[in-house]
Amino acid sequence: MYKRIAVFAVILLLASAMVFAGGRQEAGEIRIGVAGAHSGDLASYGLPTVNAAQLIADEVNAAGGLNGQQIRLFIEDDQCAPDVAANTAAKLVGDRVVAVLGHICSGATNAAMEIYTGENIVTVSPSATSPPLTQSGDFPTFFRTIAPDDAQGQLQAEFVAEELGLTSVAILHDGGDYGRGLAEFARAALQANYPQVNIALFEGITVGAVDYSAIINRIGAANVQGVIYGGYHPEASRLVTQMRAQGLNLSFISGDGVQDATFIDVAGAAAEGVYATGPMDTSASPVAQAARAAHQAKYGEEPGPFFMNAYAGMQAIVNAIRTAGSTDPAAIMSALRSSPVDTPVGRITFDERGDAIGVGFAMYQVQSGTYVELR
User: Which of 47, 48, 51, 322 is deepest in the core (most CB within 10 A)?
Assistant: First the structure.
């Protein structure tokens, strides 16, 4: 569906180009899109990116702007839904943005990139971890400030086999680009490196279901020692809660789609002891501390998930446009790859594929109601 939307959007934009012959950039302003889930169950992942973009835009504008021009943000909600994301991307292209911070979910990002790529718009995601986004070569204008899921799946496999010493697991996923992809990478890493770990079950679940008793009964019958789950926190919280209610106190290991305080809030006591991979904790760095303080001062609360990665992404976009002295896409991409910038996730540049150099994942566990980094 979104490919048809993309073609229609491109036709409209080609017609618009005849009217706006001066290009995307408006006189006196630099337009940057911010896209992600800003409503619904996954808003806790997308709204921190809006806050990060706004903080940096305000700071740059107060200091005289970017290359003498003010940054203007165009904020769009894609609800982490691919069809909505395609419409969102078409709208941002129509708004003549020069870059996009986002999207958040891998499936939505993939749909949006079908449009951005054709329009040569640079996009920097703080959280879209699906490896093909950079590894397929299909989206040359795509960059991200988070490591891809093959690294995350490898860490999960290592932890399950070497730290927990499990010999039998079930692997579940939500069927999406992110969730199924992460589950497949964890399975592949176990099969390649830890053949002693039996994968007794590999199965998708129904997103949005209220009752997961059928799959939980199958897990119980499989007599496994742990569950690896690829997906987001709404389903994970229901799975864990219902597993615990049925007496299945198995190790539960998931990814950055679950490594969020919202999961703990919803799952309550059942969340205790859950493991999840997520971006490495860099909160001790001066840049991260300054970003956190700025967020607290403006919004009166702690930053949410992927805020630091989003802050890094916005910094990278601003630094690249400043370094290039231009909003030309090729110049921005060249600067992203060659001009280091100090961010909350470290001093980063990007490789030829668009992955940030030097970022990675850590393993966390819920302890006394909060995620604690283990390794």
Answer: 48
